[in-house]
UniProtKB/TrEMBL annotation:
Protein's name according to its UniProt entry: Multicopper oxidase
Record Pfam families: Cu-oxidase (PF00394), Cu-oxidase_2 (PF07731), Cu-oxidase_3 (PF07732)
Tree of life domain: Eukaryota
Organism per entry: Zasmidium cellare
Domain Plastocyanin-like positions: 96-208, 225-356, 478-600
TM region(s), chain numbering: 12-31
CDD domains assigned: CuRO_2_LCC_like
């Protein structure tokens, strides 16, 4: 009896010890493999660091697991793209829906190949990307717009304008121009799917041509990361829009409930009230892992609000805006305001002497569009930034020392950034060949039963929900007349000035599809009620915002136009087709703040190839 008892006790000690030892040994064998796999032999295209997978692989008996479960960093892989030749790359995306808890609160979101947000696509200039979309949703079409890409019109992904909503299957053929690179994203342009998660990032790396220095060398960074930041609603987008268009809400946009960074966030479940019960599960605060010197590509993927980013413990240098457009570089710890659809590329560097000093990223949602307070929302949120673990730094050859640098300015004001100086005459001198003058606003009037309606020059056009034939497939005579969309013509390769007066009491971030533009002027009215519009045809009156910048205007594809102010945008009408111009606030877009510019004559725009492509999108 005695002996037996002793043995039992011994086994009680030996067995667990052996188990722990075996785990440790296994871990040390597998760990480097896992790590190396992740950083260097990932599939070329996807940096889709799927958080689910990380959760499974990340735990182990070390204080710093390789990838912590709540680390939301997405690493990019320029080294796999900048030295190779252009290629044709095929992707297949199955679109489904599923319940996710991005910030702890359950919400049905769209999934691309099971992922939310969609996979991160990395390419180089000159690549051709074929994306076959398989719609596996019930009773719901889809369409994907490739924000900022200068591609063929029929591939632009706008339901009601360039295609039908895809019911079963459709292949986008995207020929990336040789001279296009930078930070882009893709998102649904059908109904309100964007706000329920149908989006992802697309990065085009600039090839390191022989004889020129690559960005990696020029700015001496070895790590590149992506950060998608956006406001987030816990309710389905349809409900949010219904709220917005309810006359009782005085055309005030419903404020978001939360914010997500790369598809994760943090929400205090105790914020859920009896009136708004939520299926909420408390989660750990997510964090970011940043090496001491990183290129960070940031996209505002939100539906409503702009935001400002501060990086405590880092100094940021603004490198590029939107799709790879250079700027006069300034350094700070804070950048803003970045509006929905806009992007910035930042070089972020540790500013202290010790990379283990605490560091934070702070996102502050702009309050302009949040006139209805949402008690559940924490509009300014902080997430900690961890240094990578020691062996990760070794793999990345990261320099251990941190240079001591200081910011130039208290914050980088994105509304006042200069571009790189341009060659004289590049903008075709003082005036463009053609000028399009517009007035935009959101109205709220008796005749619309006090529902908000977005207008551009007295036309309101909600196209994302159209079940009819897309405009591009119809003769002008067959276009709808009530409401009649505003479509302005411009000749191919003309220089066009687009003057948008915002006569609304709120700002609107406008996006032009298929083109980049020079921002010659952006003006905010000097006081409330001072309608300082600009009429380029009135030669008597000086523009309130001063002369046009023809020296170093910034180039963008999305620009914020302040309330009661205006923007003057000059672009070369280089791309044939019907191109949407609209506010990128989803709720404003949904209530009609859309128009189009037709580049080229009717026959050029509606070629047989275009018709064939549209027919494919409209088939069953
Ligand atoms: C997408 O769906 C098709 C058919 O349902 C299937 O054959 C394919 O494996 C799926 N692809 C992915 C990436 O899930
Ligand atoms: C789309 O149309 C359907 C049916 O007419 C309507 O119920 C829905 O609210 C519309 N959605 C949007 C975003 O306008
Ligand atoms: C932009 O450039 C103009 C003209 O060179 C200069 O006067 C202005 O100070 C610059 N603005 C900023 C924010 O650097
Ligand atoms: C928009 O309205 C203004 C003012 O009525 C007018 O001058 C302008 O030509 C209109 N623009 C277009 C493209 O029709
Ligand atoms: Cu708007």
């Amino acid at each position: 009896m005695e002996k037996d008892g002793k043995w039992k006790r011994k086994w009680k000690v030996i067995l667990p010890t052996a188990a722990v030892l075996a785990t440790v040994v296994l871990f040390f064998f597998l760990y480097p493999k896992f790590y190396l796999n992740r950083s260097w032999s990932d599939e070329d295209l996807y940096s889709g660091d799927n958080p689910e997978i990380e959760q499974d692989l990340g735990h182990g008996p070390v204080t710093h697991p390789a990838v912590e479960p709540n680390d939301f960093s997405i690493r990019l892989h320029p080294e796999q793209h900048i030295h190779r030749d252009p290629e044709t790359i095929g992707l297949e995306w199955n679109i489904t829906k599923g319940v996710a808890r991005p910030d702890g609160v359950a919400k049905e979101v769209y999934l691309i190949d099971g992922q939310f947000p969609g996979p991160t696509v990395e390419l180089r200039s000159g690549d051709e990307l074929l994306v076959t979309i398989r719609n596996e949703l019930k009773d719901e079409g889809v369409a994907i717009h490739w924000h900022g890409l200068r591609i063929e019109n029929a591939m632009d992904g706008v339901v009601g304008l360039t295609q039908c909503a895809i019911q079963k299957e459709f292949t986008y053929r995207l020929k990336i121009p040789d001279d296009q690179d930078g930070t882009f994203w893709y998102h649904s342009h059908s109904e309100l799917q964007r706000a329920d998660g149908l989006f992802g990032a697309l990065v085009i790396h600039k090839p390191a041509e022989a004889g020129s220095t690559s960005d990696l060398k020029k700015y001496e960074y070895r790590n590149e990361q992506l950060l998608m930041v956006g406001d987030w609603y816990h309710r389905p987008a349809e409900e949010v829009l219904a709220d917005y268009t309810n006359w009782e809400n005085f055309k005030i946009e419903p404020a978001p409930d939360s914010m997500l960074l790369n598809g994760v966030g943090y929400f205090e479940c105790s914020m859920a009230t009896k009136a708004h019960p939520l299926d909420c599960k408390g989660q750990d605060m997510p964090h970011l892992t940043l090496p001491a010197r990183t290129r960070l590509r940031i996209v505002n993927t939100g539906a409503l609000t702009g935001f400002t980013i501060s990086m405590t413990g880092f100094v940021v240098t603004l490198l590029e805006v939107d799709g790879g457009h250079g700027v006069e570089q300034v350094r700070s710890e804070k950048v803003g305001i970045l509006y929905p659809g806009e992007r910035v590329d930042l070089l972020v560097e540790r500013s202290g002497h010790d990379e283990y000093e605490s560091a934070w990223i702070t996102i502050a949602l702009d309050r302009e569009n949040m006139q209805f307070p949402n008690m559940a929302l924490t509009p300014t949120q902080q997430f900690s930034i961890a240094p990578p673990m020691a062996n990760e730094r070794a793999v990345l050859h990261e320099e251990a020392t941190v240079r001591s640098i200081s910011p130039h300015v208290p914050w980088i004001d994105l509304s006042n950034v200069n571009g790189s100086a341009i060659a004289f005459g590049e903008l075709s001198g003082q005036s463009a060949d053609d000028t399009i003058l517009l007035y935009a606003s959101i109205s709220y009037l008796t005749q619309y039963e006090y529902r908000p309606k977005g207008f551009i020059n007295h036309t309101s056009w909600s196209l994302s929900n159209s079940s009819g034939s897309p405009l591009l497939s119809l003769d002008r005579a067959a276009w709808p007349t009530d409401p009649e969309p505003l479509v302005v013509k411009a000749g191919r390769s003309e220089w066009v000035d687009l003057v948008i007066n915002n006569i609304d009491d709120k700002g609107h971030p406008f996006h032009l599809h298929g083109h980049d533009f020079y921002v010659l002027s952006v003006h905010q009215a000097s006081r409330v009620g001072a309608y300082e519009q600009y009429n380029p045809f009135d030669s008597e009156k000086e523009p309130a915002g001063g002369p046009m910048n023809l020296v170093n205007p910034v180039i963008k594809d999305t620009v914020y136009i302040p309330s009661q102010g205006y923007a003057v945008l000059r672009f070369r009408a280089s791309n044939l087709g019907l191109w949407l111009v609209h506010c990128h606030v989803l709720w404003h877009e949904a209530v009609g703040m859309n128009m189009a510019i037709q580049i080229g004559d009717d026959a050029q725009v509606r070629s047989q190839m275009v018709q064939d492509s549209i027919a494919k999108s409209c088939a069953g």
